[in-house]
Write a structure and sequence with these properties.
The chain is mainly alpha-helical and 549 residues long. Helix content is 66%, strand content 5%. A 5-stranded parallel sheet has the order 4-1-5-6-7, sandwiched between helices. It has a two-stranded antiparallel sheet with strand order 2-3. Helix 14 (359-379) runs antiparallel to helix 15 (384-404), helix 17 runs antiparallel to helix 18 and helix 18 runs antiparallel to helix 19 (480-499). The two termini are 50 Å apart.
């Protein structure tokens, strides 16, 4: 929810590549995964969205249990395997990926021109067909024409004969997302598409109607209860409590259901009514528990707006949440959960300004957030949220000071961010993410030390950062994220060493970093970001070698 200093983009790694062998389960055996999604690194967002849609889809009850081409029709497809470590330093499919292919009921290939050119996608298709000649291989067409988007391995059987796989066309103006999803589900469970479409439409209509009616009834009930609360002063507290309960339901359980059936228009209307309802209240007359509940609900509204990229609506929600938590903290200045809630609302407003480049407007909110984090630590240092908030908040202010070019303040704050990150890592030493946070903040502090011309400190910090990342990579040599972070750190350290006259060491270090990055780019030719970074580092290496002479 909160953000510290910007981190390198990472991956949720479900499998790393290596060299392993597995055997297939026999025909008809129970598969651990309902489907294996094969895709290219460039199509990660498409694969992630498809993964969520398949795991959430519920097969209509009237089809469940009936005989399908591959056995009784299940309630859901079950777990879906999606190998997220597309980038690696190995040259073959890992044992985990092979095992998942062996234990999957079907293979779904994300078809795009990038996917058609991927060696990994081709290998996964070939291996799945070898393991399961009797199980379905389905195509999810997202971009390009079929001839250029479908891998050659998909358009041929295991013996090389031409074949035409079942294709679900997700392209704009084609099947449409819903029909394309149903095509995949029908192919995966072995039922006629017409039967699934008909039953799905009936079930979906029932769900949409029920949820929409519930939303309308609740909105009307809330409005009616509010009017009654005004007219009947003796029953005002009871009615308000009932209205609050309805609003909270709208922003929690009903919110999830509306998202599930795609009724974002009803969700938006419910959020707007809730904001109007809350904005008309006299905060001084409300008990603390009601205020806290309102703040949580309104921050949820803001999060929905951020997710929909509706910045103005998000800002309105977070400002209202801040008004409520501000009133609450005046009454309960030493209540831990109250302080925590106000810290969140200060962060959200500050971050909106920061992302918009409004540094002066962001400053008071980030500073307030940092002070509230310190208060949390004083109130309850044992609560893990205390240390987390200190780490997040100091990281935010450090980033702000760096953007403002306030070097002395940046050094102090970035130093505190490093200390806070180390404290969290020591509490959970097995967490790689905690140690990556430490390395990240060491890099920011090194840059801040350069701003104040403390070059020796910057050199030492970069060396510590490299040692830490090497240790992480030694524990998990296939971790592509750690390898990328190490390459970046080695690059920065080489520059520091060159500045300090250690040119021989700097050249050797940069050569090794360039070689590592070249290997990674050769295994992921579609990643333009890595390719651009490689070109930059190759130029830097040439310059270092010239200076050495």
């Amino acid at each position: 929810m909160r953000q510290g200093l910007p981190l390198a983009r990472g991956f949720e790694i479900l499998g790393a590549r290596g060299r392993g062998r597995v055997t297939a389960t026999g025909p008809g055996a129970s598969a651990r995964y309902g489907a294996f999604i094969s895709y290219n690194h460039a199509d990660r967002a498409k694969a992630r969205a498809l993964h969520r849609a398949l795991e959430r889809y519920r097969i209509p009850a009237k089809l469940v249990g009936h005989a399908g081409a591959y056995g009784p029709v299940p309630r859901r497809l079950g777990r879906i395997f999606r190998d997220l470590d597309e980038l690696s330093a190995a040259g073959d499919l890992s044992a985990e990926v092979r095992a998942a292919l062996a234990d999957s009921a079907c293979l779904i290939v994300v078809c795009t021109p990038a996917g058609a050119a991927s060696q990994w996608v081709a290998r996964e298709i070939t291996l799945f067909r070898e393991l399961h000649p009797d199980r379905p291989v389905l195509a999810a067409l997202f971009a390009g024409e079929p001839a250029e988007a479908m891998p050659e391995a998909l358009r041929r059987t295991a013996d090389g004969s031409p074949t035409e796989p079942l294709a679900a066309d997700f392209r704009e103006g084609k099947d449409g997302r819903r029909l394309a999803l149903l095509k995949l589900v029908a192919g995966a469970v072995g039922v006629p598409l017409d039967a699934l479409v008909q039953r799905d439409a009936q079930a979906r209509m029932r769900r949409v109607t029920a949820v929409t009616l519930a939303a309308v009834v609740l909105v009307l009930a809330m409005a009616g209860l509010t009017v009654l609360a005004v007219r009947a002063r003796g029953e005002a507290e009871v009615r308000r409590a009932q209205a609050e309960g309805l609003v909270e339901f709208m922003l929690t359980d009903l919110r999830g259901r509306l998202k599930e059936v795609g009724r974002l228009d009803v969700l938006r209307e419910a959020n707007e009514r809730a904001l109007r309802y809350y904005g008309e209240q006299d905060l001084a007359q409300l008990p603390p528990d009601v205020l806290a509940r309102r703040a949580r609900a309104i921050m949820t509204i803001g999060e929905d707006a951020l997710e929909a990229k509706e910045t103005a609506r998000a800002r309105a929600a977070f400002v209202e949440a801040n008004r409520i938590t501000g009133a609450l903290i005046k009454r309960e200045p030493d209540e831990y959960d109250v302080v925590f809630a106000h810290a969140q609302s200060e962060f959200y407003i500050g971050n909106l300004h920061f992302e918009a480049g409004e540094l002066a407007a962001a400053e008071p909110h980030f500073e307030a957030y940092a002070q509230l984090a310190i208060r949390l630590m004083a109130l309850n240092p044992a609560d893990p949220r205390s240390a987390e908030e200190v780490s997040y908040s100091t990281g935010n202010v450090c980033g702000l000071r760096m953007e403002q070019r306030l070097a002395d303040q940046a050094v102090s704050l970035c130093s505190e961010a490093v200390r806070a990150a180390k404290a969290l890592a020591r509490r959970d030493p097995s967490s790689e993410q905690r140690w990556r946070d430490v390395a990240n903040r060491q890099g920011w502090l090194a840059d801040a030390q350069v701003l104040v011309h403390n070059f020796n400190a910057a050199l030492q910090l970069r060396r510590e950062q490299v040692r830490l990342l090497k240790g992480l990579l030694d524990r998990d040599p296939q971790n592509a994220r750690n390898r990328r972070m190490l390459i970046t750190a080695e690059r920065a350290l080489a520059k520091r060493e060159a500045y300090h006259g250690e040119r021989e060491m700097a050249v050797r270090r940069m050569r090794a970093a360039v070689a590592d990055l070249r290997t990674m780019t050769e295994l992921d030719t579609e990643n333009q970001e890595l390719a651009a970074r490689l070109r930059e580092m190759e130029v830097e290496l040439v310059n270092l070698e010239r200076r050495k002479k």
